[in-house]
Amino acid sequence: MKVAFYPGCVSKGACPELYVSATLIAKNLGLELEELTQAPCTGAGVLSEQNPDLADALNGLTLAMAEAEGADLMTICSTCQGVLSSHNFHLTREKERLDRANATIADQGFRYTGTTKVKHLLWMLFEDIGIDRVASAIKRKLTGLKIAPFYGCYILRPVESLGLKERPERKGYLERLIALLGAEPVEYRGSTKCCGFPMATFNREKALAMGGNHIIEAKEKGADLLVTPCPLCHLNLDAQQPDAARVLKKEIDVPIFHLPQLLGLAFGYEPEQLRLNHHVVPTKGALEKVELKV
Amino acid sequence: MEFTIEVGRYNPEGTYADSAKPGQPYPAPWDRSPARRYQTYTVDLPEHAVVLDALIAIREYQDQTVAVRCACRSAICGSCAMWINGHAHLACKSKLAEFTKDGKTRVESPPSMPIIRDLVCDMKPFWDKHLAVRPWLENKQPIPPPNEEYRVANASMEELIQEVSCISCGACLMDCESFAVNQDFLGPQALAQAYRYAADPRDAKTEERLGEYSQSGGIWDCTHCYECVTQCPKGVAPLEQILKLRRMAVDAGFTHNPGTRHADAFAESVRESGRLNELTLMPKSIGFFNIIEQLKTLPSAFNLVRAGKLPPLIHKKIPGVNRIKAIFERVGGRFK
Amino acid sequence: MTYDHDVLVLGAGLAGMRAALEAARQGADAAIVTKVHPIRSHSSAAQGGINAAISETDSWESHAFDTVKGSDYLADQDAVEVMCQEAPGDIIEFEHMGVIFYRGPDGRLGTRAFGGASQARTYFVGDITGQALLVTLYDQILKAGVKVYEEWFATSLYVENGACRGLVALEMITGELHLLRSKAVVVASGGLGRLYEPSTNALICTGDGYSLAYRAGAPLMDMEMVQYHPTTLAGSGFLMTEAARGEGAYLLNSEGERFMKNYAPNKMELAARDVTSRAEATEIKEGRGINGNVLLDLRHLGPDVILKKLPQIHEMALDYLGIDMIKEPVPVRPGMHYQMGGIKTDVEGATAMPGLYAAGEVACVSVHGGNRLGANSLLDTIVFGRRSGKAAAAFAKANSAPGGGEELLRSEQARLQELLARPYTGDTPAGLRLELATMMDDKVGLYRTDAGLHEALDKLQGFKKRYEKIAVGDKGRVFNQALTFALELGFLLDCGDAIIRSAIERKESRGAHTHVEHPERNDEAWLKHTVLTCVDGEQAEISFVPVTITRWKPEVRTY
């Protein structure tokens, strides 16, 4: 199944492990990844906030590029998903906005007619690839692991543009996936909350406290690790975890996995292939529970 | 139809709840609020009944000691906002059938607000924040004579209906992520009302307001998580109003803050390379003159290096980046 | 503890806050005592709009005549004249305060049509006019720095030497009883909807002010005039604003016909509320209703109008009945809505008791007489809120501060303690209230009979006896709502008593009071107000006061 693959900026920057693991597992899931190498950054909401027209044009360009491929646009980042869904929602419903965006990208030889569907890998697992296909690719059950899902705001809110009114089941995919892979999902309040990333550069301590508190809550409920479909959340929860621990004056030490890494382990890949040895918070302890070494 | 309700009970008998343990920075809200016990009740109500119907039935006929604020029963007065299954909702607008999970619905006072008793929280933080944004019209001079109204376009009044629809229920603040770690954050409702007055064509102090709201605890303390938009029962969309204020503040020239620098750094990165340059984003947002804050980020930079996650020092541009530059030229506004 | 102020205002709705603001502007040390936060006041439920003769093609005389006719000629015309003359100035003042009124294409205030009005003169904000006024006024109170005793429940007025000198209130957060003294008190505590079931009113509308003033010795007037609103949502009783009909909605019976053509052929759905409510009740009684309701049809208005001008009621019908009014008609029926009668005041808001003032729904000036026009209540609150605040401030300036009151505080303390200590009898305040309210709707509602009214009075006395023994299920101090409910039930019983006694007296049909055995309006004998005074704390003394006529002689009232 062909998809217009939009890896986003972070998976090619500070989270290369995400890109590597995503491209690896694509094969097991029968996904043919046609990467949109010329598509720009979504703006992560920052550009949308400051200059909606600019963000409409940039994201309109990306959507048009996917349209030209004749395939769904697949994201591997909650933030990309949120921003692209939001712009797609408005561009397909507000002719004025679409016209303006098209006028800007017409110079570049592109035009968006509004047919692209934006889907995160997490959604595609359930809605396009199918749970049976995913189950049949499992070679190694992750039994014994307690895994806490961390969605990331932008794959859950705002509700309208993410199609959550029509498909409320999207709010529970991570838990179902964790169970499917043989592990135990951990229920905790922070799973749908914010990691703090949007204000991490200008309100650092508070952002760290936010993310840190959620990890600690999951830890207290027994989680061995957190899994997240968003690399920006991953940066705040993993790369910044030591600083969060310092700010909160508490020990944390809970590894954070990317969604494709978790799938990769279940599909039989070795931790190093998935770059699980390149996290800031060591993944060793969690991996030992399923008799894996890193 | 039978419904089971779990009510969070707390009765201090004359004392307020304890605040956070001294010396503990940034405690989670549920660490800050006192322990409560949950009492289970069953009620028999029509199938479209709402949570408030259940609470009223309980306190009228089963247990008169359950305290809950309510008045209009129809989502106008804003009294009955509380945590229902862990998120802030109006009890009078929440259908029991929709909220029943695993056979029951749990209601309690939201942990991020101080608690008075049972389902009655202390709304003082909420009212204080509302007062803090000076939420009243500072009349533009000259004020028309007593028999004449200001002449303004209906569109400018309709623009404000969304904010005036706010019933001050507090649901947005109760679920605000930023407020949960930072009690100084003005919060979604106050900032939505701040926009309501800043955008009123009859207000004379727009610029001063924007300056005030750009300070610490104001518009740049919002973490953009959309909780308030999702929980607001009246469609006020406080986050959208905060973003409007951010735009207005930047347009008015209040750009000497990390929030604006962050946006500028982001835009510059995307314009020049088509993608985000994580390496320079943090230092540029902090501002090169802010040495102490820059130094604080060194440990995490070091961690990235150690883990082999440091992005390449030479930031790669995407193929076809000229397209992106052209787009910025055309509609980039301040970011050209 | 004891607190002293110049002026105390009881109630923080539109009338109360306007009174306090005015008193503060006049230099008085004013404070508001309210049992809920000001924003929670029931004023915010008033949806449709506020009347004033502002436009050039309009005149205050026309507005006044419509009001007088609407009142079925029971309104005091001097008071109506004052209200209609001052209406434009008060509305413009609120616009200057920042209310986001709807504008016409010229940028000036724009109108919508409303019931009983000879021309469109209702100014509005979407369908949240009351809320828009309330929040703006609250913001002005914040700006003026007026003190608010929030969630303080008044249990008794303090009367010394025949003058009102303050009140005793329960601070709900601590459970402590306090004495608040002042030189003047403005009672603006709103209506008594909980006396009837169903009612559009909030749970807090329990007639506190009527009872407190009555027991203190101030007379109540025209209590029998209880308005039923024609369009309350089936089941819950929530208000479906008259603005819907103002925008053009139809009322249909089970045969799909616009039955108002048989009752008010000129104004149709925009006839006065009592006329429309009775029409609906007749249709339902004669078998042309649908499960005890009629239908409010807005489909022909189109989604644009509904979503822009009536979004709140659209959402209500969707939330509480699952009906989308864009696609289907909404079942509605008459429900108790407003009390035209109340504490008797003059045009300055002064009652017969020195130092005691009243404004808003709780007061009876009388501007609404036997039936209130839609969008006149919001007007009433701001005009007479302002006037009573001003008068109270002037009175405070001219009088010395009171002393004493400790004895009242002690006796209130004892009274509440006794109430809390009572053993359970099998009656709950909620259960008793429901019996009372159902009885009132049944026998003292849209249609009244002699037998029915006397039976109601008997039943009420029975309820009163049970009330004297009723126990309170929560004995705690902090935020004891069971205690305040029990006190509120006492207020409701007093109000019920006053309403029934007044209704028994009026042997004619006028406005909202329809007496089956006396179906005609009788101007010769009954162009007067029924006045009820409490003597020796128990006896109700009836008297009458003629209606003040200035320029409009009573005519036949048709729409």
Fill in the keyword field for this structure.
heterotrimer; A: 294 residues; alpha/beta; Glutathione S-transferase Yfyf (Class Pi), Chain A, domain 2; Rossmann fold; 2 domains; 4-stranded parallel sheet; 13 helices; 8 strands; 10% strand; globular; B: 336 residues; alpha+beta; Ubiquitin-like (UB roll); Fumarate Reductase Iron-sulfur Protein, Chain B, domain 2; 3 domains; 5-stranded mixed sheet; two-stranded antiparallel ribbon
Give a short summary of the structure.
The complex is a heterotrimer of chains A (294), B (336) and C (559). With 294 residues, chain A is an alpha/beta fold.
Strand order of the largest sheet of chain C: 7-3-2-11-18
Residue stretches of chain C low in confidence (pLDDT < 50, at least 5 long) are none
Oligomer: heterotrimer
* Total beta strand runs of chain A: 8
Give the uncertain stretches of chain A in residue-range form: none
**Average of per-residue pLDDT values of chain A:** 95
Domain count of chain A: the total is 2
The CATH class name of the largest domain in chain A reads Alpha Beta
CATH superfamily of the domain at 414-527 in chain C: Fumarate reductase/succinate dehydrogenase flavoprotein-like, C-terminal domain
C-alpha geometry of chain C: globular
Please name the CATH architecture of the largest domain in chain A.
Answer: 3-Layer(aba) Sandwich
- Judging from the principal axes of the Cα atoms, what is the shape of chain A? globular
Task: Going across the biggest sheet of chain A, name each strand in turn.
Answer: 2-1-3-4
CATH topology name of the largest domain in chain A:
Rossmann fold
Name the structural class of chain C.
Answer: alpha/beta
Layout of strands and helices, then pairs:
The complex is a heterotrimer of chains A (294), B (336) and C (559).
Chain A: E1 2-6, H1 16-28, E2 32-35, H2 46-50, H3 52-69, E3 72-75, H4 78-91, H5 95-106, E4 118-120, H6 121-129, H7 131-136, E5 146-149, H8 173-180, E6 184-185, H9 204-220, E7 225-228, H10 231-239, H11 241-248, E8 256-258, H12 259-266, H13 284-288
Parallel strand pairs in A: 1-2, 1-3, 3-4, 5-6, 5-7, 7-8
Chain B: E1 2-9, H1 29-32, E2 37-44, H2 51-62, E3 81-84, E4 87-90, H3 96-99, E5 105-108, E6 115-117, E7 120-121, H4 124-132, H5 154-158, H6 161-164, H7 171-174, H8 177-181, H9 188-198, H10 206-213, H11 227-231, H12 238-251, H13 258-273, H14 278-286, H15 291-296, H16 298-307, H17 321-331
Parallel strand pairs in B: 1-5
Antiparallel strand pairs in B: 1-2, 3-4, 3-5, 6-7
Helix pairs in contact in B: 4-9, 9-10, 9-12, 10-12, 13-14, 13-17
Chain C: E1 2-4, E2 7-10, H1 14-25, E3 30-34, E4 50-51, H2 60-70, H3 77-97, E5 111-112, E6 122-123, H4 129-144, E7 147-150, E8 152-160, E9 163-171, E10 176-181, E11 184-187, H5 208-216, E12 220-221, E13 226-233, H6 243-246, E14 250-252, H7 273-288, E15 294-297, H8 302-309, H9 311-321, E16 330-339, E17 342-344, E18 356-358, E19 363-364, H10 377-398, H11 406-421, H12 429-443, E20 447-448, H13 450-469, H14 481-505, E21 514-515, H15 523-526, E22 528-535, E23 539-546
